[in-house]
Amino acid sequence: MATISDMDESITRGDSARNAWSTFIASRFPADAASGSASHASELQVELELLSEYAARAKQSYNARVQACRLPAELLGTVFMLLRDIWPPTASRSYAVLPQESVTDSEGESDEEEDETACGELVWSYSTGWMSVTSVCSIWRKVAISHPTLWCEIHCASMHPEAGAVILARSAPLPVCITLDFGDKSGSSLAWTRKYMRDKNIYKRIRRLVMRNIPRDTFITLMTTLQDMPLLEELSFSIRHWHGYQHQSIEYVPEYVEDGLATPNNLSRVTFKGCLLSLTSPFLSRSITHLTLMSGFSSNSDGVLPNANAMLNLISSLTNLQELRLQGIPAYRSSEDAHVLSDSVCHLPPCFRLLELFVYWYNGSDATAVDFLSRIVLPLGSHFRMEVSQDGDVLPQGPLFARIVCAARKAYGYEGLPWSLNLDFWSVRMTINDIPDLEEESGQSSIFIKRVGGDSKGNVAEHIVKQLSLADLTTIRFSPTSVRALFVKDSPYNIQLHDACSIRNLVLWLPTDLHLIGLLGHALVDGVVTPLFPRMQSIALQQYFKGSSGGSNVDNAVSALAAALTARRKIGFPVRKLFIDKRYKREVALSLFANMSIEFIDVENDQDNMSLYMTAELLSSDD
Prior knowledge:
- The chain has 19 helices and 25 strands.
- By secondary structure, the chain is α/β, with parallel strands linked by helices.
- The protein has a domain at 417-623.
- The strands form 5 sheets. It has a 17-stranded mixed sheet, sandwiched between helices. A two-stranded antiparallel ribbon has the order 1-2.
- Strand 10, helix 11 and strand 11 (323-327) form a beta-alpha-beta unit.
- Helix 12 packs parallel to helix 13, helix 13 (397-410) packs across helix 14 (461-467) and helix 17 (514-521) packs parallel to helix 18.
- The radius of gyration is 35 Å and the shape is flat.
């Protein structure tokens, strides 16, 4: 905090500076200048120009002493890079407002109402975003311009086409990443294409090319230029209106264009949305690590989508593939379709990490998904994600969805490995571990399958449990909806769960069904008293609805659980540890579980953390 003496010193310095400048100005701009000649005015004009020049120098001297300008150029350049990623240039549109002429009646009197306004010509304005740093001061401008990496990300839809020459020059000679969005109303992307995307010198510098909402003719034209892009590593094409119902499912590149394409040397990431090369094209080479192929909502009535055999043949050739995303591909087929898959199985390479499938529930898409998954083997350490868009008229959905879940689990094909199962109303999650050390990322494979749409009253949990092999299942999590479907009194699905003898860990969301809790303490199987999950060693209680305690229902469930665990201990099936969501810390009476180890953990809604924590705690004491 400034002291009074500091303030007095500052005022004194200000007064001294003002006096010095007053003397200087008086010497250069005399008080009687108003009575001077025209030549004297010209001399004063020169003085003003020099004053502006030296004022700029003074500002530079000041800026050089400011902390933000004293940072090393490399560090300042890094800051600008971060700023570029969070403050992009933008384009906005408005209409020039034109006043309407006054409306007069036949007697020449003006209307009493005020003049209205009318919309005139559409006007586009562009904000420079992060590039505004070049206008702050000369030091920042020099640093920004001397860092060509800053200028290598070019989003054409948000920049004025006239800026292209400057940006391309500042980024030279480095490779550039160009994104064009032909869905922008300003026409900037089309103007950029016409002005700069015909220059082979620019082609030679393109490292990433992203084309969104591209018209068909422009798509075909630009495909013919790909052989002139030797540095191309990432390519993404999205056809305009590719997802529309009224259009065909996919747009193929004409043969005459494909014939001119050579095998790329560096291309590793490829995305085609609503468009596609032939899957046998040399352009889809083994250098590809990330591949995305998406069709529209069409049911393949035009017969152009590749089938499962074609996809499997392509994947088998991509020995460096790491991520694969498919939507609406392979082609759908019905159970009566004559198309038969080959017996060959495609083993994805050890480097593979992610498979994503988006399936529409039309014309046998479930059979297509099962066909595809049954012919691939996924490596440990990879992950599988799937979204199934269901049709409400397709019934029954449970068995069909369960077939997909089982096929996904079998795609890993590793028997004897512990795995976990999470059953929710709309989704299924599985985690496969191959080694005790859970911290090793390569030691886990996850499966997540989500259904959207369809019958909101149907529950798929019972069908999944019935069809899925529960051997080696060590951790299971039930949502309340799954519990209600599975643990109906005298339900045959209880027998399936009694066969899951490897389960060590159980996660329950509170409140839960009392019938399930009763089975944990006392169940009769083939005339023998055997509790559900006889090898169970830990139970976790988690809050299901965030912010809702559950009241008396939770109290009843906790009391019933304490009684069930006491019954287990008496017949020789004790549970060693109880994990409790810390949000229940005040609601769970610890005295009910006096003979157990209890730990409150912070899980919020991260279900995976809870099951992994439980498993890690118990690994050292497994039988």
